[in-house]
């Protein structure tokens, strides 16, 4: 029987590549240090740092990092709010050489 994680970050399976370990390590470092000073004022569920951790773990440092950056941009005043989960898979239009397309996540029809 496998024990489930009681932590706040995504506990699903993901490849432990150097880029993903670096990215998730930086997010975890932020969570343990700076997050307490900034406060719990995220307008989304999961929080921006939890979203970044899962996006990097699932989709790699490059794609997940862009998804996290645009998510933090949506979290400011006048931005979106509500439940905004990381997609399990990326559509064919989300390629490494077009990072601006990741800004569509969190809006309607983002996964086409």
Automatic annotation (TrEMBL):
Keywords, in A-Z order: Cell membrane, Membrane
Compartments reported by the entry: Cell membrane
Name of the protein described by the UniProt record: Putative membrane protein insertion efficiency factor
Protein's organism: Hoeflea alexandrii
Family to which the UniProt record says this protein belongs: Belongs to the UPF0161 family.
UniProt-listed HAMAP family: UPF0161_YidD
Function: Could be involved in insertion of integral membrane proteins into the membrane.
Record bears the keyword Endoplasmic reticulum: no
Membrane topology note: Peripheral membrane protein
InterPro entries: Membr_insert_effic_factor_YidD
């Amino acid at each position: 029987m496998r024990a489930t994680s009681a932590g706040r970050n995504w506990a699903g399976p993901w490849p432990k590549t150097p880029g993903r370990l670096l990215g998730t390590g930086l997010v975890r470092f932020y969570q343990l240090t700076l997050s307490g000073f900034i406060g719990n004022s995220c307008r989304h569920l999961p929080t921006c740092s939890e979203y970044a951790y899962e996006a990097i773990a699932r989709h790699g440092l490059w794609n997940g990092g862009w998804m996290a950056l645009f998510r933090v941009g949506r979290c400011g005043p006048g931005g979106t709010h509500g439940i905004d989960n990381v997609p399990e898979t990326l559509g064919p239009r989300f390629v490494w050489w077009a990072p601006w397309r990741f800004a569509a996540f969190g809006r309607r029809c983002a996964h086409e």
